[in-house]
Write a structure and sequence with these properties.
This protein is α+β, with helices and mostly antiparallel strands and 653 residues long. Helices cover 56% and strands 14% of the residues. It starts with 11 loop residues before the first helix and ends with a helix. The relative contact order is 0.05.
Length: 653
């Protein structure tokens, strides 16, 4: 038999609905019996084989069914406390009633409880002790009532499970007694429908138990559950059925008692041998599947271990208290600690690290995953390593995060490369600016040359020409100061008016704007001052304005807005700067690439670093930059938080 053909049925999901169905059947059947007594309909009161279901038994079955329904919920959650208490109360009532009935049988004293219910119909009763149910029924109701009291108590669930088994046993014994005509088994007199209802009560109690060790064994998807299900079904149903068949053959003189017994033994042995062999074959096949799965799991574990050891990045496993549970060879090479030195101890973190490991672990414990979080790690020798950390929670079978996996990569060289790219972009921006400044300075210098020539040629207007030359030189001086202000920056935050910064950037690009006959729409608010690094923000604005000029057509329009704003989500205060053009927009296939370094659509003109550097600068300041583009143009929106808000954002990130 192929192991793939073996399936162990997960029966736990059907347990609770089965219990609810059994309880509902009890309530419905009890109501039908009482209707049969009231309307004098024999079939409804279970009148078969010379007996019937008594009114008191129907009442007890009704109370037991209601008790089960009150203490069981369809979705598996705990029912309300009042429902549990009401169900326990009904169980107590049934138990007391059954105990009093037993006392009547034992002492011979009539306590006059048999005629409390449906006394006006007991004239139809032809058995001894009108209204009283059989002694076996009294025993079953007494034990069942006790079980219903503890059915929701996990500490005493053994009482409920035992009660359910006893009730099922009484029902089974009564049915066997009827099958073979052995009156002692069904008392004086338990009706067949009563035995069947007791079977339903037992099933409902076992399925509704809070512990459910009996149903747990029967419904278990494991090998033990499969073995119990097969053998129990054969023992409970097959043997009595074969014995009943043998008795029927004897009664019709088809077989003699001796031959019938011999045939019965042979058939029982054959059935059980086949069942045991079949079960053993299935269990062996499942064992083989489990062994194969174990071998595959071992092979995968070894491959994973080899992959972890060969990985160039450090892979660690740590707990919620930050103590290390496993430590790869790459982590040892990067940070210096051997596995036996660091396992069981928390991972040291450099002071003034961008992110604290306690915050990272808290995020992982909340179910989040981390990707490329910048941190600073301390090596064993005390040196600092720039690192990128990624992580994810490791969930157990119940879905809880017990441990976490972490990946540590040395980002020192990456950070140096990033800084080199930023310097490259600054040089590129300086080159573009130099070209613009040269163009701007050339015009006034030509004017000065002409004015000096005229001053030498005409003595009458010398002073006038020299004054005009002085004005042109003042323009050159102004442009030079703007150029120096663009790149001479000590990196220290200072109060900056963003609207004024925009004006200075636009002045730099006046020649380009005039060359393309472009119109600039400015909506600059005066109250746009915040504490920031002016040179870096000026570089971002210069990149956005230069891109807008390149993207817009001749006689196009560029719109620039500044206004105070708050960031979406966290409400941090700052400034919104919007730069929009009416060009042809960015192709949809390229929108995800514009933030990548060295990506450009300007061919020989651009370096592909402008937007990438701008994004790095804005994110360093705790802000954000986003865009949207269509065939009508492209719009970039920059959010610059105040310096205090930016620092708070970086600490909590």
């Amino acid at each position: 038999m192929d192991s793939e053909d073996i399936q162990i049925p997960p029966l736990y999901g059907a347990v609770r609905p089965t219990g609810i169905a059994a309880a509902s059947t009890l309530v419905a059947a009890a109501c039908l019996v009482m209707a049969g007594w009231q309307l004098r309909i024999p079939i409804l009161r279970g009148q078969v084989f010379g007996s019937f279901v008594s009114p008191n038994a129907a009442l007890c079955f009704l109370l037991c069914g209601c008790s089960l329904l009150l203490q069981t919920s369809k979705d598996g959650s705990s029912p309300a406390r009042w429902r549990v208490r009401a169900g326990m109360g009904l169980g107590v009532v049934v138990g007391i009633f059954a105990l009093l009935t037993l006392l009547e049988y034992v002492t011979g004293i009539d306590l006059d409880i048999d005629r409390v219910f449906f006394a006006h119909r007991l004239s139809d009763w032809w058995l001894p002790n009108p209204g009283r149910f059989a002694i076996t029924s009294a025993i079953a109701f007494l034990v069942g009532g006790m079980g219903l009291v503890f059915i929701r108590n996990k500490d005493k669930a053994i009482i409920a499970d035992t009660g359910g088994c006893v009730v099922l046993g009484v029902a089974y014994i009564g049915i066997i007694g009827y099958m073979f005509g052995f009156r002692l088994f069904y008392g004086h007199v338990m009706a067949v429908p009563t035995a069947i209802l007791f079977a339903g009560l037992g099933v409902g109690m076992l399925c509704g138990s809070s512990a459910g060790w009996v149903v747990g064994a029967l419904a278990s998807p494991r090998l033990g559950g499969m073995l119990v299900r097969r053998l129990t079904a054969a023992i409970v149903f097959a043997i009595p059925a074969l014995a009943a068949l043998e008795t029927w053959l004897e009664q019709r003189n088809i077989v003699t008692p001796e031959s019938g017994m011999a045939i019965l033994v042979l058939v029982v042995v054959g059935v059980f041998t086949t069942l045991v062999m079949r079960t053993a074959a299935v269990m062996n096949s499942i064992d083989q599947s489990q062994e194969a799965a174990q071998l595959r799991a071992t092979a995968l574990s070894e491959e994973l271990s080899a992959l972890i050891e060969a990985s160039p990045v450090g892979i660690i496993r740590f707990r919620q208290d930050r103590t290390i549970a496993s430590w790869s060879a790459a982590a040892e090479r990067m940070l210096g600690w051997k596995a036996d030195e660091i396992i069981g101890h928390p991972l040291p973190v450099a002071p003034n690290s961008t992110h604290d490991w306690s915050e990272l672990v808290a995020k992982l414990a909340g179910g989040a995953s981390l990707v490329h979080v910048e941190t600073r790690q301390v090596r064993k020798d005390g040196s600092i390593m720039e690192a990128l950390v990624s992580g994810a929670p490791i969930r157990n079978a119940s879905g809880q995060e017990r441990e976490f996996i972490g990946v540590i990569a040395d980002s020192t060289e990456l950070k140096l490369a990033k800084e080199a790219l930023i310097r490259t972009e600054k040089l590129s921006a300086a080159g573009r600016l130099a070209a613009s400044i040269a163009h701007e300075i050339n015009n006034p210098l030509e004017a000065v040359t002409n004015l000096l020539y005229l001053a030498r040629s005409s003595r009458d207007q010398t002073q006038e020409f020299l004054a005009m030359a002085d004005e042109e030189l003042a323009r050159v001086t102004h442009l030079t100061k703007q150029t120096l202000g663009f790149y001479r920056d000590d990196g220290a935050p200072a109060a900056v008016n963003i609207s004024a910064l925009v004006e200075s950037v636009l002045n730099i690009y006046q020649s380009k704007l005039k060359g393309k006959q472009m119109r600039v729409v400015k909506e600059l608010r005066a109250e746009t001052e915040l504490s920031t690094v002016a040179g870096e923000v000026r570089q971002v604005l210069s990149n956005l304005v230069a891109n807008a000029i390149d993207a817009a057509p001749t006689r196009g329009v560029i719109t620039i807005r500044t206004k105070p704003a708050r960031a979406n989500g966290n409400g941090i205060s700052g400034i919104h700067v919007t730069v929009a053009d009416n060009g042809s927009g960015i192709d949809a296939a390229l929108k995800n690439k514009i933030w990548e370094p060295f990506f450009t659509t300007k061919k020989d003109v651009g370096t592909g670093l402008g937007l990438w550097v701008s994004k790095q600068i804005i994110e360093k300041h705790g802000g954000s930059i986003r865009f949207r583009s269509s065939r009508q143009g492209t719009l970039f929106v920059v959010f610059l938080p105040s310096m205090a808000a930016a620092q708070s954002t970086r600490v909590s990130a």
